[in-house]
Specification:
binds zinc ion
Length: about 230
């Protein structure tokens, strides 16, 4: 470490490509840079940098940027960000999105596998019904009772928020006991009798799938041991 830093100390300009570039610049170029203005540092294929007069400096990377290397998002130009940093940021966001999608896909596969194991273990799932209407009962038909249609049963994995469709299509949230069916579907167990499961749209937080995967795997492990 010491030897190399000493070597670098003796020839700092040639070791650093940035300084090497400045070193090679002719006296005229150097003067132009000092007397006029800062030039754009954006990388351009086949060139060291764009070199057009800069209009601002990036708050992230510190590079000067010209009008065409200024970050613009949805038509709105940024005062303090270069286009290089903006596209790097977008790539990172896209990658993060891809990672989380594949993580959720893996969680769904884990859920299906654990549900299949639970089905083989013989552990009874919780029965589920959907309210499809009501029928009159009792003397002179004064009492009504709900008409229930059986749905695929499910093992309970906890309570989770579900998106639900209300009258006039205004969505609302509700928390339900939630289960996993033998076929690996995540389902609400039983909304209050006045609701129908048909109106439940889906888990409100997609990331809850990860929690559910851990829980159902735990259940399957326990049932497998028992
Ligand atoms: Zn930048
Ligand atoms: Zn530029």
């Amino acid at each position: 470490m010491k030897a190399s830093s000493m070597t670098a100390g003796t020839q700092p300009l040639r070791d650093d490509p940035h300084h090497a570039g400045l070193h090679r610049a002719s006296p005229t170029e150097g003067l132009a840079a000092m007397t006029t203005s800062v030039t754009c540092d954006a990388p351009v294929p086949g060139q060291r940098a764009c070199g057009i007069n800069a209009i601002g400096r990036c708050g992230r990377c510190g590079d000067a940027f010209c009008l065409s290397h200024r970050a613009v998002s949805y038509g709105i130009p940024f005062d303090d960000q270069c286009s290089t940093c903006l596209s790097a940021e977008r790539n990172t966001a896209r990658q993060r999105q891809r990672d989380s999608v594949s993580e959720l896909d893996r969680a769904r596969e884990r859920i299906s596998a654990a549900a299949a194991r639970l089905a083989r273990s013989g552990l009874e799932p919780h029965p589920r019904f959907m309210v499809t209407g009501s029928k009159r009962r009792g003397l002179l038909g004064r009492r009504t009772e709900p008409v229930l249609e059986p749905l695929e049963p499910a093992w309970i994995v906890g309570r989770f928020k579900w998106d639900q469709q209300e009258l006039w299509n205004r969505g609302f949230l509700d928390t339900y006991d939630t289960g996993v069916t033998p076929s690996g579907k995540i389902v609400p167990i039983g909304p209050a009798p006045s609701y129908t499961v048909r109106d439940v749209q889906g888990l409100h937080r997609e990331a809850d799938v990860l929690d559910i995967a851990n829980t159902i795997e735990g259940l399957a492990d326990k049932a497998g041991r028992g």
